[in-house]
């Protein structure tokens, strides 16, 4: 905000050299006040201040949780294509599981189809647990958690995942997925 004020001050000086005294006094008095007093003063003047990263944290985390919830809902309806909407539709998507690395959205989709829809395989009922969202910035996050499937046979494959999310123009997308299985 201070940079913006200084830029505006410089522009006003260029346009009107006599505006320097009043503008400089306002900036200096704002800098010497406590941060909560500065916010109150800005609010009283009616200025709209952009939200800080901390103020946006809950909204950003909710966006990521929405992607994961949408994935679970799609999976549990047998909709792998809907599940894949949480992933970045790019040849640069990376999916790592066991000793396999799959590059690209289409190959990842085919991997899911092969393992969970073809040859009599079932998808089971998916759950995510113990989510930890580590926001690295407004546009990047690392998410860890547990996944679990409940199969009609009574088996319960489960494991852990680490997801790298990026905020794209269309919303949050998984750009890298490292999933490990812990057994049945």
Oligomer: single chain
CATH class of the largest domain: Alpha Beta
How confident is the prediction overall: mean pLDDT? 81
β content, as a range?
A: 25-35%
Low-pLDDT residue intervals, each spanning 5 or more residues: 1-42
Give the name of the CATH architecture of the largest domain.
Roll
Secondary structure tally, helices: 6
Number of domains: 2
Largest sheet: 6 strands, mixed
Radius of gyration: 25 Å
Key descriptive features of the protein:
184 residues, alpha+beta, disordered N terminus, 6 helices, elongated, six-stranded mixed beta sheet, Nuclear Transport Factor 2, Chain: A
Can you tell me about this structure?
With 184 residues, the chain is α+β, with helices and mostly antiparallel strands. The chain has two domains: 2-45, no CATH class; 53-183, Nuclear Transport Factor 2, Chain: A, CATH 3.10.450.50. The protein has helices spanning 2-15, 20-32, 35-45, 53-76, 80-83, 105-116, and strands at 94-97, 100-103, 125-135, 140-150, 158-168, 171-183. The chain has a six-stranded mixed sheet. The protein is elongated and about 65 Å long. The model is unreliable at 1-42 (pLDDT under 50).
Helices, strands, pairings?
Layout: H1 2-15, H2 20-32, H3 35-45, H4 53-76, H5 80-83, E1 94-97, E2 100-103, H6 105-116, E3 125-135, E4 140-150, E5 158-168, E6 171-183
Parallel strand pairs: 1-6
Antiparallel strand pairs: 1-2, 3-4, 4-5, 5-6
Helix pairs in contact: 1-2
């Amino acid at each position: 905000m201070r940079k913006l004020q200084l830029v505006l001050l410089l522009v006003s000086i260029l346009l009107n050299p006599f505006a320097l005294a009043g503008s400089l006094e306002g900036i200096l008095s704002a800098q010497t006040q406590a941060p909560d007093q500065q916010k109150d003063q800005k609010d009283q003047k009616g200025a709209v201040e952009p939200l800080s990263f901390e103020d946006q944290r809950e909204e950003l985390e909710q966006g990521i949780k929405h992607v994961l919830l949408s994935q679970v809902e799609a999976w549990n309806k047998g909709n792998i294509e809907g599940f894949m909407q949480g992933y970045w539709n790019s040849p640069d998507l990376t999916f790592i599981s066991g000793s396999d690395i799959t590059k690209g959205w289409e190959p990842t989709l085919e991997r899911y189809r092969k393992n969970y829809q073809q040859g009599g395989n079932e998808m089971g009922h998916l759950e995510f647990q113990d989510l930890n969202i580590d926001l690295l910035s407004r546009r990047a996050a690392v998410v860890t958690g547990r996944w679990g499937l409940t199969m009609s046979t009574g088996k319960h494959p489960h494991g852990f995942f680490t997801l790298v999310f990026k905020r794209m123009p269309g919303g949050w997308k998984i750009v890298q997925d490292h999933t490990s299985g812990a057994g049945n």
